[in-house]
C-alpha cells in the first residue's frame, strides 16, 4: 500500500496474515518437480477400463485406454499467477493447483461426445493415483470432485515432509485437443438428451467442462500479463478473495471461486476499462465492489474477447468470457450466488464509501459467515431414491445443480417481496470447501481406507437414503410477516390456473377493499406471536408440494421460541396481548391522564414516563394482570387461577413541575419525594378509588391489574436534585432510546428477550444489568456494519454472542448512538473519545464501557459488573455458544471447527435438544452449588428446565446422591411459600389478600445481597433470575477474606492480644455459612467435582 493511514497498516497486516509466504512457493515448486519426475517414469501401457455408472449412456464405449506419460506438469492457479491465500477456505492448509497436461494423442477425435472425454480423463487419473500412492515422498493421495462435479475429479496429494501444503492435481488437455467450435454453448454433444423443437437439446455446461481443461495455460498467461501491467493487481485480487472468504462465499461450487474473482478483477482493470490501473489495492477493490453491487451488471456479462454475448447469456446466468473467446469462466455460477454476491458487494461498498474509522475492519476483517448473514435457515431433507445427490451426469449439468436451481425457483416464487436475497446450496458446501476426498475415492485402488462415518461426513449426508439442501433467506422487514400474498387477477385464467397449481389448497379467491378479485394466500389464522414463522411455513408448504424428493423441512424461525417459555410451556409469547408492550403503555397513558388531573398536590404532575423493560418489549416475562390489582371491591378472578404472592412491579418516572423550594441535601430530597408520592397515592384513592400499596422502599399504584411503582423526578428543582437523581435520569433516557429501537426493528424485542434469557440461564444474572444487554443488542441493530440489520431473533442472537465474545472490552468502548444509524463512532467527538479512553486506562474502571449520548462516561450500567473474571467467563461461554449455534444453522459441516466436532455437529436444526444445548449451564466449574426451594421462588414456572432435569444434572455433573437429594427436598417442605397465594389468605377476601401481597419482593436477590455481605471478597455468586433454583459459588483463587462475617468464630479474638489475620475459610465453612444464611430458602449445598 502506498498510503500511511490506519487502513493501509491494516491492509499490510492482512496481507502478511493471508498471503502465501515466498518460502511456500518454493516448496510447491519443489514438490511439482518431484511430481513430474514420478509421473514421467510411468510406462506406456494399454489397460481395460469400465467407466463409472454416473457418467451415463455413451461413456461405456470406452472399454480400454492406452496410457502415455504427461506432456507437461506445471504449477497453475493463484500459486503461480498471484493472489494466493495462505489457507484455502474450508481447509487447514495451503493448496497449490498443478496441471498435468495429457498428450493430444490420448484422445480420439470424437471423444468430446457423450462423456468419453471425462471417462478417459478419469482413467488417466486412476493410473496417476496408483503410481503416486507408491511414491515414497507422498504421504497420502485421494480423489476429490473438483467444484463438486463428479465428472471432473482431481487428486489431492500431500507430501510426507510438508503437511501444511496440498497439491491439487488437475488433468488438462491441449488447446487443440478438440475443435472449440464444436463445444460452443449452443452445440449438442450429449446424444441421449431429449429433443427440443425437433432438435437435440444443447449441452452448454457439459461443453464448458471440456473447454476449461483446454485453455488453462491461456488463462494463466492472461492473469500474469495483467499483473505485470497493473502494480497492485495481485494485492487487489488477494483482498477481494479475503473479502469473499470472510463471508463464506469462496468455497461454493456454484459461486465465485478465487479463480473467477481474479479473472473478473483483471478484466475490469485491463480489458473492461472500468477501473484505473493507477489505483492501489484498496481503491481497486472498493471500485470493483461498487461496480458489481448491481445485479444487472453481473447478469449483463463480461468478455475479454470483445464478442457478442447473446448465446452465452441464454445458456448461463453469469458470463465471463476468457481471452480465448471460447470459455465462460463463470459457467458454474448460479442465480442465487449472483444475488448473494451483489447484495454483499452493495453492503460493503456502502460501508467503505462512508469512510468510518472502522470501515476496513468491518468489511475485510470481520467474519460474516452464512449463519450470521441470513435471517432464516431451512434444511430440506431429500430422498436419494428420488434424485441423485451424488451428482449423476444424465443431464447437461450434474443432477444436484439442477435440484438446487429448482429449489431456488420454488423459493423465489413463494417468498416474492418477503425476501431480499435467497441462497440455495447443497448443505455440505455451505461455508465449506470442495477440497476433500469424494465417496468414489474410497473404492479406488491404492488409497487408504476410511471409516464409513468419515466418508459420510464428506458429503454432509444425513444417512444413506437422504441428503440435505440448505436455503438461506435475508428477509425484507417491511414485508416478511405480511398476512396476504396477492396472486393474479381472476380475469387471467392462465395465470390463475398456474397459481392454484403451485399453491394447491392454500390458494383462495378473495375480493379486496379496492374492488379487485384476486387469487391470494392468507395467513391470518397464525397467532401474532408466531407470525415470524410465516416465511418458513410458506416455503415448507410449497417445497413439499412441488418437489417430490422433499421429505421434510426444518427451519430456524422456531429454534429459540422455547427459550421464551417457562417449563410449563407458557410465557409472553403464548399469552394474549394483555402483557404486550403496547397494552402496558396504553394502560400507563390512562393512569398518567388521571395523575395529571389531580389538583390538590403541592406540585402538579407534568409527565409520567415508563422505565421498566416490559414497556419497551425487552422483558422475557412481563408482568401479567394480577387478580388483586384491579381496584377496590373487584373479585379475585376464577377459582382455578394461581395468584402470585409477589407481583412484579412496573417502574415509572413521575415528572413534577419545577420549584425552587426543594431541600439541598440528598436525604431531605428523598424524604420530600416520598411525601410527594404519598400525596399522589392518596389523591388517586380519593378521586378514582385506585388502590395503592405503601411500603418503606416504594409506593405502588394498583391500576388495571398491574402494580405501577412510582419514582418521583425532581430535577426541575435545581442542580442538587439532578445530581441526586443521575441514575434515574439515565434510566429514563435509556428507556426512551430502547423504546425507539424496539419500534423501528420488529426483531429487536424478541432478540433482546432471548439474550437476557441466555445470560440468566448461564447464571450470570447478578453480574449483568438488563440495560447492559439491551445496549449490546441495540448496537447490532443501529450499527450493523457490513450486515443488514437482523430481521430474525436467532440471527440477532448469534451476532450478540459474537459481539460479546470478540469485542476487545479492555481497550475499546462500545458505541451506541441512535443518531448515527449506519455505523461507526461519528456521534462522539475526538475530545470525548480521548476522555473515554483515559477513563478506561484507570485501574478501577469497569471491565465494560458502553458509550451512549446520555452516558458519556460509559459506565452507568457497568460500574458494578461484570468484573473482569466474570466477563472473561462470559466471553468463553458466548464463543462456544456462537460456534454451536452457527453449526446448527448451517448444518453438519458447520464451520469445520474442532471445538464443535463432538457436540454441535451431532445436533441438527429441528432437533428438540438444539435450543437446550445453547442454554444449559455447566455446573462442574463451580466450587459449591446451592439448591433452592422452588416453592420459595415467586415465579418458579419461568424456569427453563423442570425439577427432574435439574436433579439429573446434579447427579450427573456433581455426583450428588439421588437418595440424599430426595431426602433434603422432603426435609425442607416448610419454609417461605411465594409461588402461590395460600388458600387460607384468599378465603379472607380480596382486601386481606391484597394486604398480604409482597409487591416486587425477590428472595433470590435478597439472599445474594446478604451472602455477598457475609462472604466479602471470598467468592463470586452466580444465579438465574428467571425461576432458576440453583446458585453457583466460585471461590476466588486467593480465598482472601475482606471484612467478611464468615464464620462467626473468626470474630472471637482478644483485642488486647497479638492479632493475626484469620486463615482463609474452607469450602465446608463457606457452604455451612450459606446454608445458615438461607434457612428455609436453600435446601442443600453440594461441593464441586474438584472438592469431592
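^ Assign residues to that structure.
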Amino acid at each position: 500500500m502506498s498510503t500511511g493511514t490506519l487502513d493501509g497498516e491494516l491492509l499490510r497486516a492482512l496481507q502478511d496474515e493471508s498471503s502465501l509466504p515466498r518460502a511456500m512457493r518454493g516448496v510447491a515448486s519443489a514438490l511439482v518437480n518431484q511430481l513430474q519426475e514420478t509421473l514421467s517414469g510411468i510406462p506406456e501401457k494399454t489397460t481395460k477400463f469400465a467407466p463409472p455408472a454416473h457418467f451415463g449412456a455413451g461413456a461405456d464405449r470406452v472399454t480400454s485406454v492406452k496410457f502415455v506419460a504427461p506432456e507437461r506438469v506445471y504449477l497453475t492457479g493463484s500459486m503461480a499467477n498471484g493472489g494466493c491465500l495462505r489457507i484455502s477456505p474450508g481447509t487447514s492448509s495451503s493448496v497449490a493447483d498443478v496441471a498435468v497436461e495429457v498428450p493430444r494423442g490420448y484422445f480420439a477425435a470424437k471423444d468430446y461426445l457423450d462423456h468419453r472425454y471425462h471417462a478417459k480423463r478419469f482413467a488417466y487419473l486412476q493410473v496417476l493415483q496408483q503410481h503416486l500412492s507408491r511414491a515414497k515422498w507422498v504421504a497420502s493421495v485421494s480423489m476429490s470432485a473438483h467444484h463438486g462435479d463428479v465428472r471432473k475429479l482431481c487428486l489431492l496429494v500431500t507430501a510426507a515432509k510438508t503437511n501444511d501444503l496440498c497439491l491439487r492435481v488437475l488433468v488438462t488437455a491441449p488447446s487443440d485437443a478438440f475443435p472449440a467450435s464444436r463445444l460452443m454453448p449452443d452445440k449438442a454433444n450429449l446424444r441421449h438428451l431429449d429433443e427440443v423443437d425437433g432438435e437435440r437439446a444443447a449441452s452448454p455446461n457439459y461443453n464448458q467442462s471440456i473447454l476449461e481443461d483446454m485453455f488453462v495455460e491461456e488463462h494463466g498467461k492472461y492473469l500474469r500479463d495483467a499483473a505485470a501491467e497493473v502494480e497492485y493487481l495481485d494485492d487487489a485480487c488477494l483482498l477481494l478473495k479475503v473479502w469473499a472468504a470472510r463471508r463464506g462465499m469462496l468455497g461454493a461450487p456454484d459461486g465465485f471461486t478465487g479463480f473467477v474473482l481474479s479473472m473478473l478483477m483483471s478484466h475490469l482493470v485491463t480489458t473492461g476499462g472500468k477501473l484505473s490501473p493507477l489505483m492501489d489495492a484498496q481503491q481497486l477493490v472498493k471500485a470493483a465492489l461498487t461496480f458489481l453491487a448491481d445485479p444487472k451488471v453481473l447478469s449483463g456479462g463480461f468478455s475479454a474477447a470483445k464478442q457478442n454475448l447473446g448465446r452465452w447469456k441464454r445458456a448461463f446466468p453469469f458470463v465471463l468470457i476468457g481471452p480465448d473467446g471460447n470459455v465462460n469462466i463463470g459457467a458454474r455460477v448460479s442465480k442465487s450466488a449472483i444475488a448473494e454476491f451483489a447484495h454483499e458487494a452493495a453492503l460493503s461498498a456502502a460501508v467503505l464509501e462512508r469512510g468510518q474509522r472502522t470501515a476496513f475492519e468491518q468489511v475485510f476483517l470481520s467474519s460474516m459467515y452464512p449463519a450470521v448473514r441470513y435471517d432464516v435457515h431451512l434444511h430440506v431433507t431429500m430422498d436419494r431414491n428420488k434424485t441423485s445427490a451424488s451428482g449423476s451426469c444424465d443431464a447437461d449439468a450434474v443432477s444436484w445443480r439442477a435440484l438446487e436451481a429448482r429449489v431456488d425457483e420454488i423459493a423465489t416464487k413463494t417468498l416474492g417481496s418477503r425476501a431480499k436475497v435467497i441462497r440455495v446450496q447443497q448443505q455440505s458446501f455451505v461455508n465449506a470447501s470442495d477440497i476433500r476426498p469424494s465417496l468414489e475415492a474410497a473404492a479406488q485402488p491404492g488409497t487408504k481406507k476410511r471409516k464409513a462415518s468419515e466418508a459420510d461426513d464428506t458429503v454432509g449426508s444425513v444417512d444413506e437414503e437422504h441428503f440435505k439442501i440448505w436455503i438461506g433467506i435475508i428477509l425484507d422487514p417491511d414485508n416478511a410477516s405480511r398476512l396476504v400474498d396477492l396472486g393474479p387477477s381472476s380475469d387471467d385464467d392462465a395465470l390463475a390456473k398456474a397459481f392454484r397449481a403451485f399453491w394447491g389448497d392454500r390458494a383462495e379467491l378473495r375480493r379486496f377493499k379496492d374492488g379487485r378479485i384476486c387469487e391470494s394466500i392468507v395467513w391470518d389464522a397464525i397467532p401474532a406471536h408466531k407470525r415470524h414463522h410465516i416465511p418458513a411455513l410458506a416455503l415448507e408448504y410449497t417445497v413439499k408440494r412441488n418437489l417430490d424428493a422433499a421429505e421434510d423441512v426444518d427451519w430456524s424461525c422456531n429454534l429459540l421460541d422455547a427459550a421464551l417459555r417457562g417449563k410449563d410451556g407458557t410465557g409472553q409469547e403464548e399469552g394474549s396481548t394483555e402483557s404486550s408492550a403496547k397494552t402496558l403503555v396504553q394502560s400507563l397513558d390512562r393512569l398518567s391522564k388521571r395523575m395529571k388531573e389531580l389538583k390538590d398536590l403541592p406540585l402538579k404532575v407534568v409527565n409520567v414516563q415508563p422505565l421498566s423493560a416490559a414497556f419497551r418489549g425487552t422483558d422475557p416475562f412481563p408482568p401479567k394482570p394480577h387478580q388483586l390489582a384491579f381496584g377496590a371491591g373487584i373479585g379475585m378472578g376464577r377459582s382455578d387461577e394461581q395468584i402470585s404472592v409477589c407481583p412484579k412491579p412496573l417502574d415509572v418516572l413521575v415528572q413534577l413541575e419545577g420549584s425552587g423550594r426543594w431541600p439541598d441535601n440528598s436525604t431531605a430530597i428523598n424524604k420530600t419525594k416520598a411525601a410527594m408520592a404519598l400525596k399522589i397515592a392518596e389523591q388517586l384513592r380519593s378521586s378514582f378509588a385506585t388502590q395503592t400499596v405503601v411500603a418503606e422502599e416504594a409506593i405502588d399504584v394498583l391500576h388495571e391489574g398491574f402494580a405501577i411503582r412510582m419514582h418521583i423526578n425532581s430535577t426541575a428543582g435545581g442542580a442538587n436534585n439532578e445530581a441526586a437523581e443521575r441514575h434515574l435520569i439515565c434510566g429514563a433516557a435509556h428507556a426512551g432510546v430502547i423504546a425507539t429501537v424496539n419500534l423501528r426493528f420488529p426483531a429487536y424485542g424478541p432478540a433482546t428477550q432471548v439474550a437476557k434469557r441466555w445470560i440468566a440461564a448461564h447464571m450470570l444474572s447478578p453480574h449483568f444489568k438488563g440495560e447492559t444487554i439491551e445496549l449490546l443488542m441495540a448496537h447490532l441493530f443501529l450499527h450493523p456494519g457490513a450486515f443488514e440489520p437482523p430481521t430474525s431473533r436467532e440471527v440477532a442472537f448469534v451476532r450478540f454472542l459474537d459481539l460479546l465474545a470478540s469485542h476487545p472490552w479492555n481497550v475499546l468502548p462500545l458505541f451506541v448512538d441512535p443518531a448515527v444509524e449506519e455505523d461507526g463512532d461519528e456521534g462522539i467527538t475526538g475530545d470525548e473519545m480521548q476522555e473515554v479512553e483515559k477513563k478506561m486506562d484507570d485501574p478501577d474502571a469497569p471491565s465494560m464501557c458502553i458509550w451512549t449520548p446520555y452516558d458519556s462516561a460509559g459506565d452507568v450500567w457497568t460500574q458494578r459488573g461484570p468484573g473482569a473474571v466474570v466477563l472473561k467467563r462470559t466471553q468463553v461461554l458466548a464463543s462456544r455458544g456462537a460456534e454451536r449455534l452457527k453449526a446448527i444453522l448451517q448444518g453438519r459441516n458447520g464451520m469445520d471447527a474442532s471445538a464443535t466436532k463432538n457436540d454441535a455437529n451431532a445436533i441438527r436444526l429441528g432437533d428438540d435438544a438444539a435450543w437446550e444445548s445453547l442454554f444449559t449451564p455447566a455446573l462442574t466449574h463451580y466450587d459449591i452449588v446451592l439448591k433452592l426451594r422452588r416453592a420459595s421462588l415467586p415465579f418458579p414456572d419461568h424456569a427453563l428446565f423442570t425439577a427432574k432435569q435439574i436433579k439429573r444434572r446434579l447427579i450427573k455433573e456433581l455426583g450428588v446422591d439421588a437418595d440424599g437429594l430426595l431426602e433434603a427436598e422432603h426435609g425442607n417442605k416448610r419454609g417461605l411459600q411465594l409461588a402461590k397465594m395460600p388458600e387460607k389468605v384468599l378465603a379472607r377476601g380480596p382486601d386481606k389478600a391484597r394486604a398480604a401481597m409482597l409487591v416486587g419482593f425477590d428472595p433470590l436477590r435478597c439472599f445474594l445481597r446478604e451472602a455477598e455481605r457475609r462472604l466479602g471478597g471470598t467468592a463470586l455468586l452466580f444465579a438465574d433470575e428467571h425461576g432458576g433454583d440453583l446458585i453457583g459459588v466460585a471461590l476466588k483463587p486467593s480465598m482472601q477474606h475482606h471484612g467478611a462475617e464468615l464464620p462467626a468464630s473468626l470474630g472471637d479474638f482478644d483485642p488486647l492480644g497479638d492479632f493475626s489475620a484469620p486463615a482463609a475459610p474452607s469450602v465446608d465453612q463457606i457452604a455451612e455459612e450459606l446454608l445458615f444464611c438461607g434457612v428455609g430458602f436453600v435446601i442443600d449445598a453440594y461441593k464441586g467435582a474438584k472438592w469431592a
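Confidence is low (pLDDT under 50) at residues 438-461, 894-905, 1041-1057.
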